[in-house]
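Input set for joint prediction.
Command: fold jointly, output tokens.
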Amino acid sequence: GIQVEQSPPDLILQEGANSTLRCNFSDSVNNLQWFHQNPWGQLINLFYIPSGTKQNGRLSATTVATERYSLLYISSSQTTDSGVYFCAVAPNRGSTLGRLYFGRGTQLTVWP
Amino acid sequence: DTGVSQDPRHKITKRGQNVTFRCDPISEHNRLYWYRQTLGQGPEFLTYFQNEAQLEKSRLLSDRFSAERPKGSFSTLEIQRTEQGDSAMYLCASSSFPQGRQETQYFGPGTRLLVL
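tokens >
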């Protein structure tokens, strides 16, 4: 199956700092989603972004599909941003299959 | 729209017992997925349904696992003769496909299973 690598595995920031999370994938994709998993385990949708750039408040994401990577930017981080950030992709094989392949996540800790 | 709901949220069972989990997708979502997540890992795909048809099963889904979506609405995941290795978070997701060829999966809160 498609390989998804996320970096860094761990990130510790002080409140107010900016950060960039990276997701590399090994094949072309027709779906790429970024999630935030809160301490209770809920996966919260951040972006659906198989290509291009999107912004939502302090968060933005860019996917360069031809180079097989995506970036998640978090600006002016807050303690509530803490948690694990996952990148998940569905390979583009011309089929309708939609299963997502997840990376191992980036554990973000924001200190006050 | 209410989100995806799962029941129970937590389950503790003894090895060898059977357990069943339920997932209610977002209304009118035709696709429903089951994933499993162990500590320190990302979720892994188990199986999915389009309406009531089960279209794909992962090799992770041993013969002890069975999933159903009888009327194309809610789904159940049953694990028979549970083993300690089945301890994990079981996540359900739903999506509306096709929707302009954009398929966004929305996840439920998960069911945490602990097998003693």
